[in-house]
Amino acid sequence: MTDKTELSDWIKAEPVRSRLTDFPVQRRLVLKSLAAVLASGAVPALTIRAYAQQAGSHQQVFGDGTLTVVSDGQLVLPGSMVLPESIDRSELSAVLDEFGMSIDELRPDCNITLWRQGDRHVLFDVGAGSHFMPSAGKLLENMEAAGIDPYDITDVVFTHAHPDHLWGVLDDFDELICPDATYHMPEQEWDYWSAGDTLSKTPENRQAFVAGAQNRFPAIEPQLNLFRAGQEVVPGIEAIDTSGHTPGHCSFAVHAGSEAIVVLGDALTNVALSFLKPDWPSGSDQDPHKAVKTRLRLLDRLVAEQSRIVGFHLPHPGLGHVSKHDGGWRFVPA
Ligand SMILES: [Zn+2]
Questions:
Q1: What is the C-alpha separation between 288 and 29, in angstroms, rounded?
Q2: Which of 124, 139, 121 is nearest to 65 (CA)?
Q3: Cα-flanking dihedrals φ and ψ of residue 33, to 5°?
Q4: Of 15, 155, 185, 251, which residue is most buried, by most CB within 10 angstroms?
């Protein structure tokens, strides 16, 4: 595996960047050679599977396709940034304790879903990249370890444009990580982050989120497809309005034959609070009251339809379903 951090540090010290622009081609060659070794049978299949699991990915057959969850690492967040301010600390601790979480600091996993069905290889979000937090941005190395070639991705579908979902769209050479993909984004989300007055309307401690999105959008734009909630983004994948976390946030129902799995994004983020106390406003939602309504509506739908789910920030790999429990809900891991 390439040591991305050391390599990128060295590259960034280089005054002339253009002589290094052939790196994506080199990366592709490395991946192709790896694929050739795997195809030759030189490495026993069992070893490959064990390696993939260790390296932070999880794969399962689903309907007529394959669903793979690849880890982007995890976030390290101060409790004050994400936990509801209005709830008594002891009440909050009581809910979090059962799940081994503290009110001081949260460490949510980051799960990126890859859906492969026929020739279509759809990646939901692209992780944080190397400019957000050292504990995140592991997508490319975990894809390489699992033998997934970013050049094979046909579609990237964004749930929203927060850093941990969007910033990984560019590699350390400012190249799109999936050069051949169409990039799909909710229209409302694109419009919000692109607007000229969004930066000045955003609290200072989150202005980097706006700048980060605006710096990356021009690279995506030539390959962009905007969609609206309720539309089919690509065949079999339906966008669901789960706004509140951000103005245009969408989740996605992936249909495979008679089965469906909902890729949640950040509509349900915390394995304790989002399910047991979905009516508590969360500091991580841009519109906390709208996000509460969204969570309640979504939880009802997921139970009624008995959908399987995959949650971006639920404990890795984030797969499971929702069950009714004691007048509330629970996440039941697969
Ligand atoms: Zn997130």
A1: 46
A2: 121
A3: -65, -40
A4: 251
Question: What are the CA-CA distances from residue 215 to residues 38, 76, 83, 135, 212 (Å)?
Answer: 38, 24, 29, 22, 5
Strand order in the sheet with 308-311: 232-234, 237-241, 250-256, 259-265, 308-311, 319-325, 328-333
Q: Which helix (H) or strand (E) holds 109?
A: strand 109-117
Block means of pLDDT (10 residues each) for the chain, 334 residues, are 30 25 34 36 30 64 92 94 89 94 95 97 98 96 96 98 98 96 98 96 93 97 98 98 98 92 98 96 94 98 96 97 92 96
The residue behind tokens 């951090």 is: 5
Distance 75 CA to ligand 1 centre (A): 9
Q: Give me ligand 1 centre to Cα 149, in Å.
A: 24
Distance from residue 205's CA to the centre of ligand 1 (Å): 16
| CATH numbers and ranges of domains, the chain | 4-333 (3.60.15.10)
DSSP 10-40: HHHT-S--GGGTTHHHHHHHHHHHHHHHHHH
**Total Cβ atoms within 10 A of residue 254:** 26
Rounded CA separation 39/61 (Å): 20
Query: Do 60 and 66 touch, CB atoms closer than 8 A?
Result: yes
**Contact by Cβ (8 Å): 122, 90:** no
Q: How far is the centre of ligand 1, averaged over its atoms, from the C-alpha of 23 (Å)?
A: 29
Cα-based distances in Å from 202 to 212, 221, 251, 264: 13, 23, 24, 25
Q: What is the pTM of this model?
A: 0.84
Number of C-beta neighbours around residue 218 at 10 A: 8
The encoded tokens of residue 251 equal 């989740």
